[in-house]
Amino acid sequence: RSRYLSSMDHHHWWSFMKHGAESARHIKNEKLREKLIEYANSGIEPFEGYDVAYSYLEFSRWKYHASSYNEAVKYAELASRADVTWAEPDFLLGWYGLVLSTGNAEEYLSRAIEKDQRVLFRIVNNDVCKQYPHIVHKLKAKYHGLQANSDPNEGLKRTSSHA
C-alpha cells in the first residue's frame, strides 16, 4: 500500500503513475517530473508489471533529454526488469549503448528482438542504428528468418485477418 494514498493498491498506484507520466510528457515542467519520479521511487512494491515499466521508461527518456545519461540508463534498466516481456526498454538500452558508447548494445538489441521480432525492422531503419552497420549486419544474420526489410505491420495485418 502507498504511504501517500493509503487506500490505493499496487495496480491502481502504478496505473496512476503511468497516466501521470503520460501527461507529464506533454508538460515541460521539470519540478513536476521530478515529483513523479520521487513518488514512483517510493511507490508500492513489487516494482513489476507493464505500468511500472512504462513509467520508468518515460522517466528514462526525460533524463536522457536532460543529459542525465546515467539516470536514463538506470531507469531503462528498471523498466526492463519490471516487465520482462516488453521489448521497448531493451531496445532503448541498446540505443543508449550505441549513442552513449556504454554497455553492450548488441546484447540489449538481441534481447529486444527475442521479445518482439518486429524490433528488427525498427533497428534496420533507425538512423542511429544505421551508423553501426556491423551490429545491424550481425543482428540480421542472427535473426535471418525474420523480414527485417518489410513493414512489421504487414505481418500483423495478415495474422489478424486469419484470427
What does this structure look like?
The protein has 163 residues and is mainly alpha-helical. It has 10 helices and no strands. The chain has helices at 10-25, 30-41, 50-65, 69-82, 88-100, 105-115, 119-125, 127-130, 133-142, 152-162. α1 (10-25) packs antiparallel against α2 (30-41), α3 packs antiparallel against α4 (69-82) and α4 (69-82) runs antiparallel to α5 (88-100). The longest helix is centred in the N-terminal third of the chain and has 16 residues, at 10-25. The radius of gyration is 17 Å and the shape is globular. The protein starts with 9 loop residues before the first helix and ends with a helix. Residues 155-163 have low confidence and may be disordered.
Q: How far do the termini sit from each other?
A: 40 Å
SSE class: mainly alpha
Total count of helical runs of at least 4 residues? 10
Estimate the helix proportion, in percent: 55-70%
Number of DSSP-assigned strands: 0
Share of residues in strands: under 5%
Unreliable segments (pLDDT under 50, ≥5 consecutive)? 155-163
From the alpha carbons, calculate the radius of gyration and give it in angstroms.
17 Å
Main sheet characteristics: none
Global outline: globular
Element pattern in H and E: HHHHHHHHHH
User: Average pLDDT, to the nearest integer?
Assistant: 87
